[in-house]
Amino acid sequence: MDKQLDYDRVTNVLSQYDVIADGAEIQGILCGMLCGGMAVSERKWMDVLKDTMNEGAAFAPELTVVLTDVFNELCQQLIEAEFSLNLMLPDEKAPINDRGLGLINWVQGFMLGFGLYQQNLMQCSEDVKEALQDFADISRMEEPMTEDEESERALFEVVEYVKISALLCFNELGESLLDDQKDKPSVH
Question: Which pTM was predicted?
């Protein structure tokens, strides 16, 4: 079977091919695009990643496979709607500041991806606008955290908030799979 799709593996493959991003940022961009209204069946996401992460150049085949796996896994998580969104972040054994930076990269990626698909925030609910404002604040966090229980709890809470907020955006603006399956016969 495929190797575990985790932050370290995806980040290592990205750096092998000189892509200046980590797994968190890549997953964040993809999640932002989906939550901003990109159809799950749309295939332009690879072009967006090429343009934003690889100066428009095609990705190596191995990297294309890994990115496709990340995209497919993310779609699966979003449409299961059981709040099973797993942010691709450094694992718990990593130093807290590495995990915090991973979260910042994820949120910045999300905002980039979301902005590509959702320019009109006037039509968004107050909850989505507030979540995006909070994401902007999170993306600017620069304070190093101390390795203590309070910081661990705070980081955990922010990660959970980001997950719930991303799902909120997806539920409001994301293309549901039903919208996406236009070839299915409709019931009148």
Answer: 0.90
